[in-house]
Amino acid sequence: MSTLFLQSEIKNPYLLYQKMMNENPIYWNESNKIWIVYSYEYCTEILNHKKAHIPTVSENNFNEYALKISRNLARLSNVIQHEIAREIATVLFSHMKSIEIDAILSELLQNNKNKINWVELISKKLPVLTVLKSFDFNVQDSLFIANNIEQLIKIMHPNKKPDDIEFINTVSEEIYLIVEKHIGTLSFYENLIIAISSKHNISLQETKSIFISNLIGLFIQSYDAGKGLLSNTLLQCFSKENDSNTTDKIQIQKLVVETLRFDPPIHNTRRIASEDIQLNGITIRKNEAILVVLAAANRDDKHFENAMIFDVERKNNSEHLTFGTGGHMCLAKHFSVHLATEALYYLFNKFKNISILENEIEYESLINARLPKAIWISISN
Ligand code: HEM
Q1: For every residue of 153-177, which 3-state class applies, written as one string?
Q2: Are 333 and 306 in contact (CB under 8 A)?
Q3: 252: which of 81, 228, 272, 328 lies 20 to 30 Å off by Cα?
């Protein structure tokens, strides 16, 4: 098995991670010309390293809207641009209203009793609808964005097919214009863009564009990772390894945190060396690519005792690297844990009989994320 693989092609990636961590915690993959870093210590070092930058994504044939979004996203930017984009994303995030997740869930589950595909019905919709509702987007705009976000997130993929670009362009324009119209209704918008524009000496127009793009960035970021979290935590509830009481909120929250460590939705993230980097006596040369395997670091015995065992009571489970660390660390750690806890609490308290109908889970053909394609469950009172 190659060290760079699609998650759809491997049954248990953790065995490979463990072997690599023991034998080659910093490994040069010659055929793909990329360094792969496995251990907790070295993953953390790269994520905190000033010379380990976010690689650029291809923007070929993007229209003006797709270009604006991709160039302004905190997730894709470095140095001063990142500082400004992250500042705006952080303020946006702090203004998200607290939302009744039960209300969205009960609407999504309406008329869908008995047999449901949790991934399609809940995991793909709940995170992005929660973010949209917390910024007061109306029902029509929310549905449009939720139904098209799967196309838009391809903006983040390193390489795109011609068909993807056409979709990205169309959807970027429509979503950009919806968000542009909406931001005027946000009470903090005017003051924020005036403050950022004068602090960083950039035009109001430019600041507005960074603001819109990073609001769209919150929808993009919530989609894949949120989908995977809701799916993987549900699978863990049904797993043999779990003996937690799934009707108790505290127990569910512990299960969510341990699932983030043990079976995270995002397995790796990429960096590029902007200068030579020294790591454990190895030189990563300027312009060489690095794959940081967060999911392997989460199973490092040097950091987590009996790391290969699912244990909700382990004291340091929340030190997992699933949300990254350092300058690009995810803004939504608590939001995501809360969302998954509330969703599972609702499910297991609302329905008396819940059972899983899948024997074998298939995963999406992605390198960076391990996302179940479908999870069929039956639910009844
Ligand atoms: C289980 C759910 C989630 C996981 C596992 C996750 C994971 C991550 C990771 C690994 C990064 C850092 C990437 C890197 O350093 O290369 C990141 C960044 C980010 N995440 Fe999340 N995320 C989740 C949910 C969300 C949600 C729900 C939102 C927004 C509502 C969000 C917003 C962001 C933003 C804005 C960044 C970029 C921060 C920056 O570049 O400064 N994330 N996320």
Answers
A1: HHHHCCCCCHHHHHHHHHHHHHHHH
A2: no
A3: 328
Q: In this structure, which residue's CA is closest to atom 6 in ligand 1?
A: 323
pLDDT tens for residues 96-140? 999 999 999 999 998 777 899 999 999 999 999 999 999 999 999
The CA-atom distances, in angstroms, between 178 and each of 141, 170, 171, 224, 346 are 7, 13, 11, 22, 32
pTM: 0.96
Indicate whether 250 pLDDT > 80: yes
Q: Are 358 and 374 in contact (CB under 8 A)?
A: yes
What residues are paired with 354 via a beta bridge? Answer: 379
Give the Cα separation of 331 and 341 in Å (integer). Answer: 18
**Residue of the CA atom closest to atom 7 of ligand 1:** 323
Q: Residue 366 and residue 307: Cα distance in Å, rounded?
A: 25
Instruction: Map out the domains of the chain as residue ranges.
Output: 7-380
Average pLDDT, the chain: 96
Rg, Å, the chain Cα set: 21
Measured from the CB, is residue 34 less than 6 Å from ligand 1? no
Cβ–Cβ < 8 Å for 296, 15: no
Give the separation between CA 47 and CA 44, rounded to whole angstroms.
5
Q: Which CATH superfamily, name and number, covers 7-380?
A: Cytochrome P450 (1.10.630.10)
- Report the relative pairing of strands 34-37 and 289-293 from DSSP bridges: parallel
What are 324-335's pLDDT values in tens digits?
Answer: 999 999 999 999
Ligand 1 probe mutation, 45, 329, 330, 341, most atoms within 8 A of CB: 330
